[in-house]
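F.,

This is the one I mentioned.
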């Protein structure tokens, strides 16, 4: 099974001074499931990790993707589905909308995130999201 990977979880994991660092480190240490994100979210991760953690943190992030610790998925209808989610939820941007669309492709309702707005959203299959770690 897969877990959708949000920027907030990656940022917390990569930046030791983040308030949620310990929880993110524990989550990534104990999971052996695929952690999957989209290219849109990857671009957001790269920007924020570089901004908050510097070039060294960005290199670690890139290595995590290069080594397969974190995976990226995109599919033929990804943009159409992402835009539909964004239009249905105007308060979220394209990065988070792409993750909701990805949850439908992966058939999962589990998302590694510290962003509470996912509680008010559901997967394309109508399921409530389970926020990891441990439904923070």
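My design for it:
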């Amino acid at each position: 099974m897969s877990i959708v990977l949000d920027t907030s979880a990656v940022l917390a994991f990569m930046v030791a001074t983040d308030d949620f660092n310990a929880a993110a480190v524990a989550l990534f240490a104990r999971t052996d499931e695929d952690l999957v994100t989209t290219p849109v979210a990857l671009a957001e991760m790269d920007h924020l990790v570089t901004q908050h953690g510097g070039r060294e943190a960005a290199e670690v992030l890139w290595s995590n993707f290069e080594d397969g610790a974190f995976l990226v998925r995109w599919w033929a209808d990804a943009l159409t589905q992402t835009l539909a989610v964004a239009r249905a939820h105007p308060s979220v941007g394209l990065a988070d909308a792409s993750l909701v669309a990805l949850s439908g492709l992966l058939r999962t309702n589990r998302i590694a995130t510290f962003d509470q707005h996912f509680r008010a959203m559901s997967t394309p299959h109508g399921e409530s999201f389970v926020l990891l770690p441990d439904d923070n």
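The mean pLDDT is 96.

Talk soon.
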